[in-house]
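Re: beginner question about structure tokens

> Can someone show what the tokenized structure looks like for a real chain? I only ever see the sequence side.

Sure, here's an example I had lying around. Input first:
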Amino acid sequence: MKTTYLYLLLFFTGLTIQAQHQQPKAVRSIPEAVFEIEKGKKVSLTLLNDSSTEFPKDFFKISKENLVALIIDGCKYKSIPKEISEYQELTYFRYSWFGFSAGPITNIPEAIFNLKKLKGLVFEAKIEGDISTKIENLKNLELLELYRLKLKEFPKAVLKLKNLKVLNLSCAKFNEIPEDIIKLENLTKLQFDGGGCGATPINKIPESIGGLSNLRSISFGYVKGGLGYLPKSFFDLKKLEFFDCYGCGLKAFPPDLGKLKALKSIQMMNMNDFGLLPESLFTLPNMKRFMLLIPGGKASKALVKQKKKLNAWGTKLDQYEVEIEHWEY
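And the corresponding structure tokens:
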């Protein structure tokens, strides 16, 4: 689902773009941006579904001091001019192309790497190859979402972004998350998702994952071959609140998940046959949401026996959904 409003895109980062204690005005046209700036306001501009292949020249009528966010969503521009780098007050940039064909822009514009105040960078397009190592120039980056980028190797330059809080590398083509991810000690959200791109080949979570002590949300999408089992250190994530596993191929419900007392939400969908759910699940003190979907397979005998207890526990939650096509043998 597309979201063009800035506050939704930055929900997990806790970022609030403010200038002079003033929230930016969200606008959807260049004339509107100019109008609001003339009234002394900072603006967040969304250029949406523009059929022109040329970047609008009128854009440069916008004051460089007053534009704090730029969203280019579904536009057919063939390039982003290098003059964008003169807009040094930009703290958020998003480019999205959701068409089935390859987008007209085939790499992250060089000018973006010169935006020293950038805190949020979202790039959503069907692009082959690695990202530029110049991303390490964005020292203030807190949110990085590279969706549908089809990275063949984990981008090592990302590991130098010490302020990063949210990392989304969906549709990745690499098969391992490096042990060095522990260098991103400020991460609060980590997402590797195949989604509409098909399964990712990621089949290993590093043992070092437990060292990301600030992690509050982790999400894995469809995994080719499956993750198998979570590493032992995963259960050291004491601040983890959200755990999503959409077809990630776990072979069993993690028996030690009950150690993660901060957990509020567990979503495990399109899973394989599961055995007994651990008793520790029912003692998680902060649980609000539980979803378990096992389509087309049979529940184990142990899980069938547990059904009544599971449903009784579900009545205490804000959201509860368990769907297993064949409860009985």
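Each token stands for a local structural state, so reading them left to right follows the chain. Residues 1-20 have pLDDT under 50 and may be disordered.
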